[in-house]
Specification:
heterodimer; A: alpha+beta; Heat Shock Protein 90; 6 strands; 29% helix; B: alpha/beta; Transcription Regulator spoIIAA; 4 helices; disordered N terminus
Chain lengths: 146, 129
């Protein structure tokens, strides 16, 4: 695992962590981001939202992007300040078309065991954007006054 | 262990230990979920729920009052349990989910599938429709 600040697309001070394609290993960047969020004054609800979205993004990277391949990696880039939290989760898969995932709240899909992760990220965060290739997702939450 | 090394369980300081316990009754199973159902343990939910269902099981009761976190794999596990118990013309009922979990269920509209009850006794008593 590596941990280093990077410059990316004009956003200074992004930190980058690369972990093996393993959900237990992916808990480390989650913990670091949540600790920074709490230290920066985010509410309990906001921390819950970030935790949920991170878990959904990393599960998708592990399972769908990297196809559970232990030789692959998940890259997490993030920046936390008092105004917002920005996170990128990048896998080594071929990508996908997020608009092709059906709305899991529609009656015809409500009893499917899978397919709720993207919907939950979008419901809890201020912005969820996929890269053109579809193997990277950028998550943003704005710190709102109570 | 330094600050960058995952613990053996992968559990972070924001996660309460996750546990599943089961009480078997003649035609029902009460499954208690406690702690934080995070991504690295969530697949156990569906596996354990489905494993409780025998040909005579009609009710699957998920007691969730001590469950403080649940992500989509855990939600999907509950749906898998629901689908399996419906084959027995039975029902899955959820007992006292915490507000954050209830919000997840409402947002995903899974409250259309799972009846939410105030107690295990109520969940076991109500007729199956």
């Amino acid at each position: 695992m590596t941990d280093r600040p990077v410059r990316n697309g004009g956003l200074p001070d992004l930190k980058e962590i690369i972990v093996p394609n393993d959900l237990a290993a992916a808990k480390t960047p989650e913990r670091l981001i949540l600790e920074e969020a709490e230290a920066s004054g985010y509410s309990e609800n906001a921390v819950f939202a970030v935790k949920l979205a991170l878990e959904e993004a990393m599960t998708n990277a592990f399972r769908h992007g990297n196809q559970r391949d232990p030789a692959k990696h998940i890259t997490i880039r993030y920046r936390v300040n008092r105004e917002r939290i920005e996170i990128e989760v990048i896998d080594e898969g071929p990508g996908f078309e997020p608009d092709s995932v059906p709305d899991p709240t529609k009656p015809e899909y409500i009893d499917r065991p899978h397919g709720r992760g993207i919907m939950l990220m979008r419901a809890y965060l201020d912005s969820v954007e996929y890269s053109k290739q579809g193997n990277a997702v950028r998550l943003v939450i704005i710190n709102k006054p109570p | 262990m330094n600050a960058q090394t995952p613990s053996r369980t992968g559990r972070g300081p924001h996660d309460a230990p996750f546990s599943i316990s089961v009480e078997r009754l003649p035609d029902a199973a009460v499954v208690r979920l406690c702690g934080s159902c995070t991504m690295e343990v969530a697949s156990a939910v569906g596996e354990r729920l489905v494993a409780q269902i025998t040909p005579t099981t009609r009710l699957l009761v998920v007691e969730a009052s001590k469950l403080d976190f649940l992500e989509s794999t855990g939600l999907g596990g509950m749906v898998a349990g629901y689908l399996r118990i419906r084959r027995n013309r039975g029902d899955l009922r959820l007992v006292k989910p915490q507000p954050a979990i209830m919000a997840l269920l409402e947002m995903t509209r899974l409250t259309q599938l799972f009846r939410v009850c105030d107690s295990v006794e109520e969940a076991l008593r109500l007729p199956i429709l």
